[in-house]
Write a structure and sequence with these properties.
Elements lengths: L2 E2 L5 E2 L3 E5 L4 H17 L4 E7 L4 H7 L4 E4 L15 H19 L3 E4 L6 H10 L3 E5 L6 H6 L5 E4 L10 H4 L2 E3 L14 H7 L7 E6 L6 H15 L9 E6 L5 H10 L6 E4 L5 H5 L4 E4 L3 H10 L3 E3 L9 H11 L3 E3 L7 H12 L2 H14 L4 H9 L13
Parallel strand pairs: 3-4, 3-6, 4-5, 6-7, 7-8, 8-9, 10-11, 10-13, 11-12, 13-14, 14-15
Antiparallel strand pairs: 1-2
Helix pairs in contact: 1-15, 3-4, 8-13, 11-14
């Protein structure tokens, strides 16, 4: 029987709901899985559920994807007064999700973590709809641990996460890797990428990123380091150039500060990088937070990384991600507490001036990567869907 999708025409094939977001680390895996699922099964209709306050509120409309945004909110640790509305937002989101579920009657619900995925997962469990979870972090989040008891499949980005799940969930879990947005072979030649960004094609590239919203701490440390180099207090890296994703909120002030120290041409600050995989494919070293999506992409591209985990990340999952990569030999872990610009720049310079160390880290990253994670996960997911109808879209 044909089924309507929210705001769209009646659809003949199976509907799959994708839920997860709040941050890019939870949203982009859902987008990657959906893209690959539609490639393998063009008869599927993808529908997204997300949070009004999450990055998906911008990304989903930009991509013209069928979606509904919910009032669900995350818990702010250390700010109890800002959490008073969380229960009401959750109840409202559950009611909305239940109504949507009854209207579009999905064959499957895929949750990629974050507070935005909880309502869809709970409703799927209540309605008996097959539920698939994809957890990116070395320490599974609250949403994954809660929903895993009802999941038909749990796909993990890190082997370290398996022991943290309930016993029942481990039986349906597998370490699949983290879905990434673009496979390495689809990235253009790095010379073309560098020239398109206004850089010299023969110089190496340092990528600095604090995530989609930027990091005030990393920005301040990096700015202090650039100032000291511009003033001649620290050695410049003559063979290197820097692409610095500041985050939209911090961009104007950083541009002003760079201008005040001579507008160094070896640094380019941008508010956001829309095609991050393209840039990562041209990157020789990265300075970053340690979110799961970011670290998984570094592994896939073989990018050596200096990781400064966000200390307030849920259950300290970024620190666990960073430790896992450091133990694999693919990254250097720096604790934010007590970190100075001098130590940070010294670490960057030490690696930049040691090609053998960078080559070894790149090899270790590639060994740890799972570039086929997206297609492998979708290969498992399609087994939960009904076969395509004869004569339908193939």
């Amino acid at each position: 029987m044909p089924r309507p999708c929210e705001g769209g025409p009646v659809h003949e094939g199976p509907v799959v709901v994708f839920a997860g977001g709040g941050t890019g680390g939870h949203l982009y895996p859902a987008l990657a899985i959906a893209d690959e699922l539609l490639r393998q099964r063009p008869d599927v209709r993808a529908f997204f559920l997300g949070a009004r306050r999450g990055i998906e509120a911008r990304v989903l409309p930009e991509r013209s994807l069928d979606h509904q945004l919910l009032p669900v909110r995350g818990i702010h640790r250390g700010e109890w007064w800002s959490n008073l509305g969380v229960p009401f937002a959750l109840v409202s989101s559950l009611a909305s999700t239940l109504g949507i579920h009854r209207r579009i009657r999905p064959e499957l619900v895929v949750v990629t973590g974050g507070y935005a995925g909880a309502p869809a997962g709970l409703v799927a469990a209540a309605m008996g709809t097959p539920l698939v979870l994809q957890e990116q972090n070395a320490w599974p989040g609250v949403t994954t641990r809660l929903l895993s008891r009802w999941a038909a499949q749990v796909h993990l980005g890190f082997a370290e996460a398996l022991a943290k799940l309930p016993a029942r969930a481990r039986k349906v879990s597998r370490v699949s890797g983290c879905p990434i947005r673009t496979l390495p072979e689809n990235v253009p030649d790095r010379r073309d990428v560098l020239l398109d960004m206004g850089f010299e094609s023969h110089r190496k590239l340092l990528l600095v990123t604090g995530g989609s919203q930027g990091s005030l701490v990393l920005n301040e440390l990096m700015l202090e380091a650039v100032r000291s180099v511009a003033a001649g207090e620290r050695a410049a890296l003559d063979e290197w150039q820097v692409i610095w994703m500041t985050g939209p909120t911090h961009h104007a002030s950083i541009i002003e500060e760079l201008s005040s120290c001579g507008d160094p041409q070896w640094v380019r600050a941008v508010p956001y990088i829309g095609d991050m995989p393209r840039v990562q494919g041209a990157t020789n070293l990265a300075l970053s937070r340690a979110g799961a999506m970011t670290t998984s992409e570094f592994l896939a591209w073989g990018v050596p990384a200096i990781l400064v985990p966000l200390p307030t990340s849920a259950e300290n999952h970024q620190a666990l991600n960073a430790r896992a990569l450091q133990e694999a030999g693919a990254a250097v872990y720096l604790d934010q507490e007590g970190l100075t610009a001098e130590v940070l720049w010294g670490t960057i310079a030490g690696l930049a001036e040691d090609p053998q160390a960078l080559a070894t880290m790149s090899e270790r990253a590639s060994e740890r990567s799972r570039p086929d994670a997206t297609s492998d996960i979708v290969g498992e997911i399609v087994g939960l869907l009904p076969d395509p109808k004869p004569g339908g879209v193939q």
